[in-house]
Specification:
The chain is an alpha+beta fold. It is built from 5 helices and 3 strands, in the order ααββααβα. Strand 1 and strand 2 form a beta hairpin. Helix 1 crosses helix 4.
Length: 124
């Protein structure tokens, strides 16, 4: 399969998953404010890796909730998208948002002081 087609499928699955996760009635998922950050569908459309970030809730409970509702999510994706095969989803927590926030905090905490010039003056 061409890479551009797989990229389009990844984007469509990501968009639909974002909508479906809002409709899931499991409190572990609905209360956690989950955002789908990326989806990687295999070339044969049998498997898909879903990277997510949860803003609230216990990380382990969110993962259990996603695993337990994978069948419902797969059925909804099959109903909404016209794909030859509907992939089996495996969910992975994405730490990139937390990592970016940590780096931003570090950069904001740097104090810049004016350096002294060669004569010993403070002026720059």
């Amino acid at each position: 399969m061409a890479n551009y087609r797989r990229g389009r499928i990844n984007d469509e699955v990501k968009k639909e998953l974002s909508l479906i996760l809002r409709e899931v009635k499991d409190p572990r998922i609905s209360d956690a404010f989950i955002s789908v950050t990326a989806v990687e569908v295999s070339g044969d459309l049998k498997f898909a890796k879903v990277y997510y970030s949860a803003m609230m809730g216990d990380k382990k409970e969110v993962a259990k909730g996603l695993r337990s509702s994978a069948g419902y999510i797969r059925r909804e994706v099959a109903r909404r998208l016209n794909l030859r095969m509907t992939p089996e989803f495996s969910f992975y927590e994405d730490h990139s948002i937390e990592h970016g926030a940590h780096i931003s905090k570090l950069l904001n905490g740097i104090e810049i002081t004016p350096e002294e010039d060669e004569n010993g003056d403070d002026t720059v």
